[in-house]
Amino acid sequence: MAEKTKGQEMLESLSYQKQNYYEAADEQERAAIYAYAEGYKAFLNAAKTEREACAVAVKMAEEKGFTRYELGDKLKKGDKKYFVNRGKSVVVFRIGEKDLEEDGIRLIASHIDAPRLDIKQNPLYEDGNMCFLKTHYYGGIKKYQWTAIPLALHGTVVLKDGRSVEIRVGEDMGDPVFCIDDLLPHLGREQMSAGAAKVIEGEQLNVVVGGLPYADKEVKEKIKLTVLSLLHEKYGMNEEDFLSAELSAVPAFPARDLGFDRALIGAYGHDDRVCAYPALTALLEGKSAHTVMALLVDKEEIGSEGTTGMQCAVYADLMEEIALAFGANFRKVRARSKCLSSDVTAAFDPNFAGVYEKMNAAMLSCGTCMNKFTGSGGKSGSNDASAEFIGEVRRMFAEGGVVWQTAELGKVDAGGGGTVAKYLSKLNIDTVDLGVPVLSMHAPYEVISKADLYSNYKAFLAFMK
Predict the structure, then answer these.
(1) Is residue 126 in a domain?
(2) What is the number of structural domains in the chain?
(3) Is 304 in the same domain as 246?
(4) Average pLDDT per run of 10 along the chain, which is 465 residues long?
(5) Are residue 363 and residue 446 in the same domain, yes or no?
(6) Which of 218, 251, 284 marks a domain boundary?
């Protein structure tokens, strides 16, 4: 092999090129990548709604010796705590040895809600010898993707007497599943001439839940009655109880290895549990002198609204409680805090290359991806992190041996999106987006690389350290 010229050596030393994590990893690290993915798949299968993700996170925290915290409780150095917000979001934190006014808090913020189909408050009806539940879709979806796939029903129902019952049907092999029917192609000429947004209308996303008539000739809605009788028998429900229910239809299939080499994972809900799980495990397993916090929040897919979304004051209240517990000035604590807003980004898809600017696109298996800004058009709605903070995070990742990359969310003017970053930065906290590249984002079946998942975990360990 010919020796490199001076120019070739200089180009090599001065140029930047993304690195495939699988190529960079030795045999031992590759084994660690694959092993870590097994825990993540189990988490995904157990946590298909924000309530379930919150409950699983609490269980994992308690297994590591963390105890529940309520606003107003006393705190001391070394405490390992978790705070639950209305059963739909959870904050896990450790109190470090460093002075809060000088060091602030290291935060990682992810969301645990995902696009889905919510069951309406008056949903049950019979038509065409079938029984259906009407839905209202949650988050940004392509509606046609949700037809003709197996669905499971998850959620909480508060009965008339005040008792709560949990429903989870369609996940076990012995369970029935549900679906939304679609029109056969033989009769679909008019349907197929419509634009993709109109192929299936929102009010057509009705879930098939029954087809057996009740054995009473005098009853008009026999199939509906069969369904109601089964709900009453198993859960004590009446039709009126749908009024105080939070039920969702989600894809019934489990997380699976994807590809002959098992390098990828196909599943529902990668966005954003592929960031929430590494944030949680890094905090539970890592060691740090800093005070560290993982926020696993709700409602990001609909603008972070409500009492469980990132815009709720409770998260700032919790930070203030921590500051006050140690006599620290909360404004100073916020000013010295640092945050990774950990949400997914769009992985480059060669089948739809036209919407990406390849030089600034996230590549699968090249590590967790930093988005300096999100938003749309002229960065509208973006946090847009500072060069100084990005430089600081770069140094953390270099010291932690993290393989990572940067990207934008598609071509300029091709679209856009937002995260919780802007809400945290409004608290005067340096914040940047960092997360895993995803193929088919917001579809019922999304794809990620195990290498990027593990890179995200290592990035969080480095940030907290």
Answers:
(1) yes
(2) 2
(3) no
(4) 86 92 96 98 98 98 98 96 98 98 98 98 98 98 98 98 97 97 95 93 98 94 98 97 98 97 98 97 94 98 96 97 97 98 97 95 98 89 94 97 94 88 96 97 98 98 96
(5) yes
(6) 251
Tell me: do 457 and 347 sit in the same domain.
yes
pTM: 0.96
The residue range of the domain holding 401 is 18-114+268-464
Contacts of 262 (CB under 8 A, 6+ apart): 34, 450
Domain at 247, CATH number? 2.30.250.10
| Residues 77, 176 within the same domain | no
48 and 132 belong to one structural domain: no
